[in-house]
Amino acid sequence: MRAIQRFPSAVVAYSGGVDSTVVAVAAFRALGSERMLAVTGDSPSVARSELHGAEVIAKQAGFSWATVQTKELGDARYQANDGSRCYFCKSELYAVLDTIRDQRGFAVVMDGFNQDDLGDFRPGLKAGQEHQVVSPLKEAGLGKDAVRRLARAWGLSNWDKPASPCLASRIPYHTPVTVERLKQVEVAEDALHSLGFRQVRVRHHGALARIEVPIQDLPAILTHREAIVRAIKQAGYRFVALDLDGLKSGSLNTLITESAKKEVHPHD
């Protein structure tokens, strides 16, 4: 991929998702294991299952991988959880990766943003621009479907992995992000995963947990109703609700006003 080969070395912001995996594998193939490093940010907003999955894929693909602690929860602006939360999270991640790049002599930081991300509300893009992060998929004009086809052609086991944003995305805007709330969401979602639900969101609404799954999985939720209610309440919720509208990634973004989006979106 020419967008990668024009650099002598790279640090890749790697989450374990399809997009960043393709960039990491492409960097590994183009630059070699000594001249690339995939790095996963670790904090309470990252589910343990996601961190483990990132490690598994890195070992399968054979590229160099490391984790680094990020401290976005120490930023009051991030905790406030307004429409710019993702901006502050990515700013922290890229600042940490910039340090790794400089200390270890890498040329650039790369990420997994793709062409389709330009049409969504992505405050992290602004942070990437400020830190001069290179986005090879976006530069190549590759959207989500093309990236998945490429991952499948390369034999990557996560080619069809559902998108899994950070745990903070389950907390409605203007509800402060805390370690306790993040853990509640993680425990509840882990319980649903253990029951066989591959794609799920547990939205945190105080004492109420609102479950989102794809429409086709709604009957199965009712089949496992008792086990789900028990597990969700054990996670600390008092009430359990099922969203009949089904799973919609980024559904809480509908609560952000257009004026608020323009304050943080670099393309408006």
From TrEMBL:
CDD domains recorded: LarE-like (cd01990)
GO molecular function: sulfurtransferase activity
Name of the protein: ATP-dependent sacrificial sulfur transferase LarE
Domain of life: Bacteria
Pfam families: NAD_synthase
Domain NAD/GMP synthase: 7-76
UniProt KW keywords: Transferase
GO biological process terms, semicolon-separated: purine nucleotide metabolic process
